[in-house]
């Protein structure tokens, strides 16, 4: 896999231009983009940059983080608070993402997307209002472990860290085996349309557009 040095600004502009020219694969009026990566790679920052660049291009955008779709603590911590297998397969409510985010954006859907569902601090529902994404709008979903769920993305971007960089920058080391499992089972760098190497956050590199 060959990587080309790039700045975050050029990367964002290139992604926005590419997304702006895409046609939804499912025939509906909404595009769906993934910014996948471990928390240490800060996928939310690239997602926010991309959302802003798309807004400048006149596209409606809903940026949604999987951190707002955690399952209740009683389920997340069923096997303890530092179980990497539970973190990998049981922390994020993929069923709710399908129901509240993707289903409304299917062809014939109403476009009413829930931006978040669960507050991990209070361990209660957020009760956030639904947001209607106008036809022609773009969903930008960001967070870890986004690939391998058959989510209907039109473009997938994976932020990749080397094992050493991931270990140095991960604030919760007990989660590292979960990312090793993700690499082994999903191979996100092979599955994604675009891979961004972010070992040095000041100097990213990427594989280019598909």
From TrEMBL:
GO terms for molecular function: kinase activity. It comes from the Bacteria. Keywords: Kinase, Transferase. This is Uridine kinase. It comes from Streptomyces lavendulocolor.
């Amino acid at each position: 896999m060959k990587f080309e040095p790039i700045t975050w600004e050029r990367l964002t502009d290139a992604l926005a231009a590419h997304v702006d020219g895409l046609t939804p694969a499912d025939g509906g009026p909404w595009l769906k983009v993934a910014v996948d990566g471990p928390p240490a790679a800060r996928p939310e920052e690239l997602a926010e940059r991309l959302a802003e660049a798309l807004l400048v291009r006149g596209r409606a955008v809903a940026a949604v983080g999987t951190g707002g779709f955690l399952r209740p603590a009683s389920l997340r911590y069923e096997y303890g608070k530092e179980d990497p297998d539970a973190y990998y397969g049981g922390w994020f409510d993929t069923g709710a993402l399908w129901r509240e985010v993707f289903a409304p954006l299917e062809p014939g859907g109403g476009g009413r997307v829930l931006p978040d569902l669960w507050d991990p601090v209070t361990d209660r529902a957020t009760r956030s209002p639904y947001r209607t994404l106008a036809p022609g709008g773009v969903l930008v979903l960001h967070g870890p472990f986004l690939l391998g769920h058959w989510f209907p993305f039109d473009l997938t971007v994976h932020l990749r860290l080397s094992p050493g960089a991931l270990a140095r920058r991960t604030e919760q080391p007990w989660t590292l085996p979960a990312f090793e499992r993700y690499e082994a089972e999903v191979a996100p760098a092979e599955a994604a349309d675009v891979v961004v190497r972010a070992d040095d956050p000041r100097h990213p590199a990427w594989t280019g557009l598909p």
